[in-house]
Design goal:
alpha+beta, Heat Shock Protein 90, 4 helices, 5 strands, about 25% strand, globular
């Protein structure tokens, strides 16, 4: 299915850009008229994905974070957060609750939070090449069929 609208944004892996990613995502998906709790869920999941890029993908340097947002007629939102960082050697292990490589300051719940606030989470990663996290969520369309 072809998206009805799409946006691509690139920003540096600075912690201040986590809030930017949340705000851009919320503004873009507002076209589907999500409920307040749906919007909060998506913002939280995006926050976790972008924070992973900032903390884990580029631990000792700045690098690009690529955010792709797609909206579909059936109410599906697809969000891709991609980096060109260090990659994840064992995705299955990284997705286990409480697993972290970030030291005592990190809880290891990022992927668990993403999974609890979205309908689907996919993670593709290659060590030394980067990681792509794809989040999907279906919004209960409240408006009529007409979209701009």
């Amino acid at each position: 299915m072809k998206p009805m609208n799409e946006s691509r944004i690139t920003f540096l892996s600075r912690s201040m850009n986590e809030g930017f990613a949340r705000a851009v995502t919320a503004a873009f998906i507002s076209q589907l008229d999500p409920a307040v709790d749906e919007l909060a869920d998506i913002r939280t999941a995006v926050s976790e994905a972008v924070t992973n890029c900032i903390v884990h993908a580029y631990p000792d340097r700045l690098g690009p974070v690529f955010l792709t947002l797609r909206l579909y007629e059936n109410g599906k939102i697809q969000i891709r957060v991609r980096d060109r960082g260090c990659g994840i050697p064992d995705v299955s292990k990284a997705m286990e609750p409480l697993f972290t490589t970030g030291g005592e300051d990190r809880s290891g719940l990022g992927f668990s939070v993403m999974q609890s606030f979205t309908d689907r989470v996919r993670v593709l990663s290659r060590p030394g090449k980067g990681t792509t996290v794809t989040l999907e969520k279906y919004i209960n369309r409240r408006r009529g069929e007409g979209t701009d």
